[in-house]
Amino acid sequence: xxxxxxxxxxxxxxVLITVPSIAGSLLVLRLTGTLQLMELIALDQxxxxxxxxxxxxxxxxxxxxxxxxxxxxxxxxxDAVLAHLISSIKQQQxxxxxxxxxxxxxxxxSDQALAKVFTTTPNLIGIENVIxxxxxxxxxxxxxxxxxxxxxxxxxxxxxxxxxxxSLLYLRTQDNRSIFTLGARLAxxxxxxxxxxxxxLNPKQTKFRLGRAIFTPLQPNDGGxxxxxxxxxxxxxxxxxxxxxxxxxxxxxxLQGRLPRDLMRDRIVLIGVTAESLKDKFFTSYTTDSTxxxxxxxxxxxxxxxxxxxxxxxxxxxxxxxxxxxxxxIVVWSTIGAVIGWTASSPRQTVLKILLLGIALCGGAYxxxxxxxxxxxxxxLLALVGSAITSNTYLLWENLKEYARTxxxxxxxxxxxxxxxxxxxxxxxETLSQQKQLLQTIVDHIPVxxxxxxxxxxxxxxxxxxxxxLGWSATDLHNIDLVAECSSDSEQRQQIxxxxxxxxxxxxxxxxxxxxxxxxxxxxxxxQLDNRLFVGIGQDISDRxxxxxxxxxxxxxxxxxxIHDTLAQSFTGIxxxxxxxxxxxxDDRQATQEHLxxxxxxxxxxxxxxxxxxxxxxxxxxxxxxxxxxxxxxHRLVTQMRAAAxxxxxxxxxxxxxxxxxEVENNLLRIGQEALTNAIKYADAAEIRVELVxxxxxxxxxxxxxxxxxGVATIPSVGGFGLLGMxxxxxxxxxxxxxxxxxxxxxxxxxxxxRE
Length: 756
Fold this sequence. Notes:
The chain is α/β, with parallel strands linked by helices. The protein has five domains: 2-32 and 322-405; 43-48 and 56-320, no CATH class; 446-540, 2-Layer Sandwich (Beta-Lactamase), CATH 3.30.450; 545-620; 628-754, Heat Shock Protein 90 (2-Layer Sandwich), CATH 3.30.565. Helices cover 49% and strands 17% of the residues. The strands form seven sheets. It has a six-stranded parallel sheet with strand order 4-3-2-13-1-12. Helix 7 links the parallel strand 3 (124-128) and strand 4. The longest helix is centred in the middle third of the chain and has 67 residues, at 378-444.
């Protein structure tokens, strides 16, 4: 049993430590008065949340504001005006009149009318100031009313923050006589007329019944108060909450006879000042705006209404719990908070439960308030939050220590395991390194280029053959985009990337730029390893391309020989036959007819030679002219050079294109090609414009750049083969060639060929 008890104590150790600590600390704070102001503010908030109540029709206020004082022309009002005011009110036969105006001295103009009103109005209650002010003075009551015991105290109790939360029913004067306050005296007078009297419930008469209400005096430490001055007979102010206040009528309206009929009949009438200049204003629990502070006469009327509602209507008076009950209340909430913090699975759950229970606490206190009980909120709320946080923190600390112990044990186990894994990993790395070196050696000796790249085209591995042919090393590939570097044409770059990612295994011939800015003819095939990696296999086909070029050259030479063997022989035969015919015709005209047959043979040889010439010319026609005319050939030439150079190239045709002899188009194309090559290669031009003009009588080719230019007169006679070649071609065509250039001014080359 003892073991089980120890286990339970250990299990709930956080709660057993937290509750006494937090609850004890809050009780100490409460005893020192630290929480008093917060508790009073919480009480004010409950007053403001209270629903509005119907106006108390038993009370009417006669108010004196700034406009009334201006009408009177003086303040205080004279005795004559006051007598007239009270007399006008008496005519409506109110049950009792409360005069919340000090009148211990006469105010001129004065006459006996006010004295007569005082002596003939038994239901008139005046006021005096009983509690000494800061200067130690009090304001006595009107002598005549004091003689007739028609006097009450106008004193109001203020808390430290200047608000009225307590009400005096009666207190002791300086001469040790008991005097009711104005609000209480008016209420008791009204109830006496209805036969409702105070009935003592204890020998000291501190507890009494009044109609349906039982009154108990407020003690110094009741509710949220601590050590307050409980002199006199005090109760907690439980003023009603009126939406529009009491029925009021201005002083001027009463003096001028503008009183509604029976407004004051059988009611309680209070006369008091509400003017701002007289500074008779008091904050209550309802006050939230400094511009709507109630006047003293309104506060007295609120106390009167509170007492009447309690005695006649059974409206609750505000009561408090006993001190042991409040202490138990704090301990209960501290226990609840500690249990929540100790059993919560996470801080987030703790916060959520605290929030919900805090709302329940405040809501419960507000419910108690509506039925007449002032239940303290601040200490139990702090106990709930503080205990939950403390116990949860303690729990986390204990869990952390346990976790640390477990972690330390696991670290030791893991350390031993890691040491073993490190040994095994080193052995595996050595084996892997050997295998990798072997694989690298094999891959490097494969006579093809091998690359490993990802889905973005970024190369991750190359073999030695790749580096040897293209010059790019594995280190270079970490800093460059190989596809972008190998091709300056965006269309070709996209073609290369599409071919790499398609991984169809088909071969694609590509001309790739090397690291040292050369171009190598290659053929590539690509396959996919997995979802991320691809393998590219490439071959250097430069030898094959050179062989193809050599074959083309050989074919051209063969065609040249064939032209020599066919056209030359044919035309030689023609010449011989023509010579023979000429000789015969000259020597023997009779033999002319015989040689006409020879002319037919000449015609056949000429036609055969022409056919062979056309076939040979067609075979030797430039490739760019094979599938179009001069205009389309120049356009393709500019497009090709634009893709291979960083210079801006522009091509423009003017007029309607027409066909030119093949030889003319061939030479014009070669001149344009030479001019473009020179401008790109030597002029460092930023912009080159090519213009082809088809006129009715002539064709004009113009190539203009904005490069470095040169002096035309300074061209050496030896060298400058490009310009010389252009000059020879132009001369062959009987064309006009113009070269205009200045150093730093660019170059313009114009070729003009007659259409015929």
